[in-house]
Amino acid sequence: MKAILALLLLILAIPGCQDDSLNAPIAPAAKESQKASQKSPGGHQRATPVMGACQVFNVKLEEISGLCLNQDTTGFWAVSDEGHVCQVTFQGAVTPILSTGLDMEGVTLNPATGDMYVAVEGDQMVCRLQAPGYTVVDTLFYVQEAITEDFDNNGLEGIAFYKDSLLLVGSQEDAIVWTYRLDGTLVSRVSLRKETSKIEEVAGLFYDAKKDWLWVSDSDTQRLFIFKVGTFDLVASYDVPFIDNAEAICVDRAHDCVWVGSDEDDPKLYRISFSF
């Protein structure tokens, strides 16, 4: 009898995410950095965010794949594999804005102009939708490596507006992150797999200007990562086994959380508390 009771207590202690409810804090995965491991003992270690409890909301946007805060941070812009551009509330309510035939996988905004940039898989291109209407899709440039190497459905998955009018563009294949100017000039390229063996792919990107960090969701390994932009040192990683298909990531410091869009049979929006 005691053995059965102990087993039940163990099962109840396993953290997870339940619909519209808070759970016990979820411990982050152990931090790993090949570069950091070469530092001398006692060297300064940067403070990293601590992951806590989460909530989950249903979101009626089939194949949600990209997510970013709108300009007044009252909700999100979201895109889908089926080419839908929508507004989404913090509770998951969806307002359709535009439908296209493009496989949209990532979305980001220029904080100065409000212009929207979208990563399109298949065509392996970056498009712009000008503010404030967001009704016309203009092709800015193509990611030539993804075309030449025939990444196909393992191509562009994430995009994040960086500083100095630069875009960070990520792919599933080799977890590559390219840095591009808005005119399509390639500035740099890095494979995050060379920075840590934990990552398999880029499924979503978010640039955190507060710390100059790049947040990455990896739907294959069910993890979230933080990298330092420029050197791409690994800052931290977090296991999120309760998220089936983490396609989109958005850091919301104003509300002390990170939002993750999950492309699954019943699409979900996860709100994960973080102490920054």
CATH class: Mainly Beta
Q: Which structural class best describes the helix and strand composition? A: mainly beta
Shape: globular
CATH superfamily: TolB, C-terminal domain
SSE arrangement, N to C: HEEEEEEEEEHEEEEEEEEEEE
Helical fraction:
under 10%
Q: What is the CATH T-level topology?
A: Neuraminidase
Uncertain regions spanning at least 5 consecutive residues: 1-15, 21-45
| Domain tally | 1
> Strand content of the residues, in percent?
35-45%
Biggest sheet character: 4 strands, antiparallel
Q: If helices are DSSP runs of H or I spanning 4 or more residues, what is the number of helices?
A: 2
Average per-residue pLDDT, rounded, comes to: 88
- Rg calculated over all Cα atoms: 19 Å
Spatial order of the strands forming the largest sheet: 1-20-19-18
Question: Can you describe this structure?
Answer:
- This protein is mainly β and 276 residues long.
- The protein has a single domain, classed as Neuraminidase (6 Propeller), CATH 2.120.10.
- It is 6% helix and 45% strand.
- The chain contains two helices and 20 strands.
- The protein has a four-stranded antiparallel β-sheet with strand order 1-20-19-18, with no helix packed on it. The chain has a four-stranded antiparallel β-sheet with strand order 2-3-4-5, with no helix packed on it. It has a four-stranded antiparallel β-sheet with strand order 6-7-8-9, with no helix packed on it.
- Strand 3 and strand 4 form a beta hairpin.
- It is globular and about 40 Å long.
- The N terminus is likely disordered.
